[in-house]
Amino acid sequence: MNRYYQMAVDGDVAHIDIYGDITSWEWLESDVSSYTLAKSLATLPETVSLIDVHINSYGGEVSEGLAIYNALKAHPAKVRTVVDGFACSIASVVFMAGDERVMNEASLLLIHNAWTSATGDSEALKKAAADLETITEMSKRIYRATGDVEEERLDELMNAETWLTAEECAEMGFCTEVEPIGETAAPAQSARMALMRSVMACPGQPGQADAPLSVTVDRAVEAMNALALAIGTSQRTEPAPVEPSQQSDPSPVDPEPAADPDAAAQDGDPDDAQPEQRAMPIAAFFELIAR
């Protein structure tokens, strides 16, 4: 899926991506205006029951963001907003339009007071300051209506232009769910341990019962020895001892007669004399561990 402003319908779910600036002038492909979004919402079929809005935006014009917020709130479908990266400034207000508000653990909100530029005499500048306070109050009302944060605390955060983590937003009620970063396995450089885990986790063949633990351990050791031979090393690994209660066959087994080292030495083939030093072909190794 391309990551810019777009809307797509899949069954009863409408997907909206706001991956750019919120502005009345859509100069870039990623820009989104309230007019474009409202027109897109109006074309949705009545069968749509969920609007899924993904956000990664630095914000933009307050008037456009408030209009988008109100358009989403007014739609009869359930709205789910998701912060994929940043939801800054007025984009954080758009995020508040969700009935469900999800923040990825690796995402941030930025809240602050509205700002502008002004010229003129002192009276004009005073009026501009008063207007900014009125405009900022609209965002504050939405934050307070959505979350659970005291007015004084919210004023402090907005005056300081504050970045909020997903955990902080959850504590204040700004988001209803935090999507955790996917867990990854700890880095490992041991081929032997990786092979052991692979063999131990290998289920039995279809139609057969899982092998007893003693057989599984023997297979793991045998496979590790085969790997050592396949890469040209003579290192051997002896089978790990198995508790009597874990033996697959409790009946006694006659030990095999010990091999005569002199007989092996008399044989002219040195490979027969020291079989543990013969390198197993790679194909044979994979055939072994696939059994």
In words, what does this structure look like?
- Keywords: Cytoplasm, Hydrolase, Protease, Serine protease.
- Strands 1, 2, 3, 4, 5, 6, 7 and 8 form an eight-stranded mixed beta sheet that branches.
- Helix content is 40%, strand content 16%.
- It has two domains: 6-179, Alpha-Beta Complex (2-enoyl-CoA Hydratase, Chain A, domain 1); 191-242 and 263-289, no CATH class.
- It is α/β, with parallel strands linked by helices.
- The two termini are 41 Å apart.
- Helix 1 (34-42) packs parallel to helix 2, helix 7 packs antiparallel against helix 8 (213-230) and helix 8 (213-230) runs antiparallel to helix 11.
- The chain has helices at residues 34-42, 62-74, 90-95, 122-146, 151-159, 166-172, 191-200, 213-230, 261-266, 270-273, 282-289, and strands spanning 6-10, 13-18, 50-57, 78-88, 100-104, 108-111, 162-165, 177-179.
Strand fraction band?
15-25%
CATH topology grouping of the largest domain: 2-enoyl-CoA Hydratase, Chain A, domain 1
- Summed up, the helix count is 11
**What CATH architecture of the largest domain would you give?**
Alpha-Beta Complex
> Structural class from helices and strands?
alpha/beta
What is the helix/strand order?
EEHEHEHEEHHEHEHHHHH
CATH top level of the largest domain is: Alpha Beta
**Total number of strands:** 8
The CATH superfamily of the largest domain is 2-enoyl-CoA Hydratase, Chain A, domain 1
Shape: globular
- Average pLDDT: 77
Unreliable residue stretches:
184-194, 204-215, 233-255, 270-280
As for the number of domains, it is 2
Helix content bin: 25-40%
Radius of gyration: 33 Å
Q: How far apart are the termini? A: 41 Å
Summarize the main sheet: 8 strands, mixed
Keywords: Cytoplasm, Hydrolase, Protease, Serine protease
GO molecular function, one term: serine-type endopeptidase activity
Organism: Denitrobacterium detoxificans
Region (Disordered): 232-282
